[in-house]
């Protein structure tokens, strides 16, 4: 393009519109391909390691949750078994208490006492067997030593 020299010399026309754009020179930064490959490799390795670490932490937490849940279920099951055995023992002891109270009531019933007295040769007292003693003194009680213990009027 030889016409470029005329763009600057002519004042009648504005040829700047048609002139090629001048680009500002920027500092060229050279990137060595080996370094960028290394950086990319390091960043990929780091991200893979980070992903693996996150995945392993999540897996460990999930395993801990599963085993914790299993452990708690086993504990609950053993406690329920223990509660059931204690409840069975309570029922057995309550029935034993009922049986013993019935046995005690049978032994001390009035009919049993009368039968035991008859077996020993005792009998009900009759009017002829009762003797009344009249005293002119106040009611009092004496001990074997002859001491007066109480007087009742």
Question: How would the blueprint of this fold be written?
Answer:
Elements (H helix, E strand, L loop, with lengths): L3 H6 L23 H75 L2 H10 L19 E4 L5 E5 L1
Antiparallel strand pairs: 1-2
Describe this structure in words.
With 153 residues, the protein is mainly α. 59% of the residues lie in helices and 6% in strands. The protein is built from 3 helices and 2 strands; from the N terminus they run αααββ. The longest helix has 75 residues, at 33-107. The termini are far apart. 0% of the residues are buried.
Order of helices and strands: HHHEE
Number of strands: 2
Sheet having the most strands: 2 strands, antiparallel
Number of helices: 3
Strand order of the largest sheet: 1-2
Q: Quick one: overall form? A: rod-shaped
Q: Report mean pLDDT, rounded to a whole number.
A: 79
Structural class estimated from helices and strands = mainly alpha
Regarding quaternary structure, what we see is single chain
- Report low-confidence residues grouped into runs of 5 or more: none
Radius of gyration: 59 Å
State the end-to-end distance: 159 Å
**Which percent band covers the strand fraction?**
5-15%
The helix content, as a percent range, equals: 55-70%
Task: Give a brief outline of the structure.
This protein is mainly alpha-helical and 153 residues long. The protein is built from three helices and two strands.
Which key phrases capture this entry?
153 residues; mainly alpha; two-stranded antiparallel ribbon; 3 helices; rod-shaped
């Amino acid at each position: 393009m030889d016409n470029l020299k005329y763009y600057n010399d002519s004042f009648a026309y504005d040829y700047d519109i048609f002139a090629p754009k001048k680009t500002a020179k920027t500092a060229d930064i050279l990137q060595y391909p080996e370094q960028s490959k290394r950086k990319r490799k390091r960043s990929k390795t780091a991200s893979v390691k980070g992903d693996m670490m996150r995945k392993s932490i999540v897996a460990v937490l999930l395993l801990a949750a599963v085993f914790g849940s299993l452990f708690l279920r086993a504990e609950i099951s053993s406690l329920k078994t223990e509660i059931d055995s204690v409840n069975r023992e309570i029922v057995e002891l309550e029935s034993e208490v009922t049986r013993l109270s019935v046995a005690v009531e049978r032994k001390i019933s009035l009919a049993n006492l009368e039968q035991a007295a008859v077996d020993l040769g005792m009998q009900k007292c009759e009017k002829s067997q009762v003797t009344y003693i009249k005293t002119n003194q106040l009611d009092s009680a004496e001990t074997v030593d002859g001491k007066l213990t109480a007087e009742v009027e």
